[in-house]
Amino acid sequence: MTVFNIWDLERVNIKPGVNFLNGINKKILLKFKSKRKLHEFLFKNEEISFSTFNDLLKPSHIENYFVPIKIYLSIMDALGVSKEFLQKNIAGYKTAKGTNIVENPILPIEINPVLDMLFAHHVADGTVVNPKKGRLPYFAYRQFNEDYRIDYIKKIEYVFGKIKYRKNYFLKSTQLYCPATLSSLFFKYYGVKIEDFLSERARIPQIIFDKGKESMLAVLIAFIIDEGNIDSTQITIHLKNLELIEDLNKICEKLNYRSKITVGKENSHNYFRLNILREGMKKLYADYMSLNKKYPVINLRIKGEKIKNSFAIYDRKIYKTKGNKNIVLEILKKESLSVNQLANRVNMTRQGIRYHVNNLIKEEKIKTIDKSQLNWIYGV
Questions:
Q1: 347 and 270 in a common domain
Q2: Which of 90, 108, 126 is the last residue of a domain?
Q3: C-beta separation of 102 from 93 below 8 A
Q4: Minimal CA–CA distance to 74: which of 48, 99, 102, 97?
Q5: Which has more pLDDT, 283 or 62?
Q6: How far apart are CA 244 and CA 130, in angstroms?
Q7: pLDDT tens digit string along 125-158?
């Protein structure tokens, strides 16, 4: 199992537990007789004054302030105490000058499919914020669905520990943020740079393919949540980045989900669509249910329900029932809708609705109202 330790993160300030700190102060007296002598041993060039150093070892100071981890690592080394012991006694940490605190952290950090899914969210609907003045870059993730926003936070906390935000802004704001010191792990582990998250350059790293089924499925589920559309016969993901679509199709091939790539045009721009066909949907959903049982935070929610319901709709075998044509006509007399909207309204397959719509057009009972959108609108 691959793990990352607290010292693998960038610019981390920590808050050790009070009992741990009391024990360290006793060890200092036993080995160095005084804190001043330890300070002289560690900081001969006076890069940290003794008064500052002395404060860092006071429980009262630690209650209110976080300390750069490198100082404590130096102390552990001088005392002959393992840095793993320090890691076990960290009560919280944050980015230097940051505000969001990881409380009761999960350390060491386990590299699992939930982390892979978070990475995929950052590729699919994320951006990299690159602040000035030498601060660390961090991820921003756009999500309009409140349940999915809360799930994003749950995934971060599943991997790293409870995040103490200044306020639960994500209940209203559609843009969420991954703390900078946590964001740094994604860059390091997946071997990517800021420019690799540009929409036209983004790719699925080879490490995802090398890790196996669970990681690849977690990535695919993230894209279904962020970019996917569900109907009775397929899942579609469409992007302008052909290589990224090909990466997702490669995942489908490796997981034996029947799929194909199609090309279309929207607003005079080419886009590329991954179509996970009905046979692939069934296997994907079964695999997803197994993964969800192991990692409950990997949750398709409403899109999972749509996939499940699509099987029931298709299995009804009513998609060409003549009586449904009259139902479609009566609905279109009241409002203009697309094939997808009609399919949801009538609880039929998209193909069945299109069959009736084409016949109604031939009979001149309805017409195409709007062709400017990706899904044409029909009415009387």
A1: no
A2: 108
A3: yes
A4: 48
A5: 283
A6: 23
A7: 999 998 777 788 999 999 999 999 999 999 999 9
What pLDDT is attached to residue 78? 95
Same domain, 311 and 208: yes
Question: What is the average per-residue pLDDT within 51-64?
Answer: 90
Output the CA torsion 304→309→312→316 (10° steps): -150
Q: Which of 273, 268, 123 is nearest to 196 (CA)?
A: 123
pLDDT tens-digit readout, 310-326: 887 665 555 455 568 88
Rounded-to-integer distance, Cα 282 and Cα 312, Å: 12
Q: At which of 315, 332, 365 does a domain end?
A: 315
Taking the C-alpha atoms of residue 235 and residue 152, their distance in angstroms, rounded to an integer, is: 22
What is the value of pTM for the model shown?
0.82
Average pLDDT, the chain: 89
Closest CA to 347 of 365, 324, 368: 324
Q: Which domain holds residue 84?
A: 3-108
The length of the chain is 380
What is the distance between the alpha carbons of residues 226 and 143, in angstroms, rounded to a whole number? 8
> Domain for residue 159, yes or no?
no
CATH of the domain at 334: 1.10.10.10
Whether 89 is in a domain gets the answer yes
Total number of domains in the chain:
3
Q: What is the pLDDT of residue 173?
A: 85
What's the pLDDT tens digit per position in 270-291? 889 999 998 899 999 999 999 9
Torsion of Cα atoms, 165 then 169 then 174 then 177, to 10°:
-20
Q: Is residue 183 assigned to a domain?
A: no
Residues 303, 369 within the same domain:
no
Per the CB < 8 A criterion, the answer to whether 141 and 122 are in contact is yes
Residue of 347, 311, 312, 309 whose CA lies nearest to 328:
347
Residue 249: DSSP 8-state: H
| Count of CB atoms situated within 10 Å of the CB of 142 | 15
pLDDT at position 334, please?
A: 82
Q: Which of 74-83, 168-177, 296-305 has the lowest mean pLDDT?
A: 168-177
Q: Locate tokens 């306020």: which residue?
A: 167
First to last CA, the chain: 61
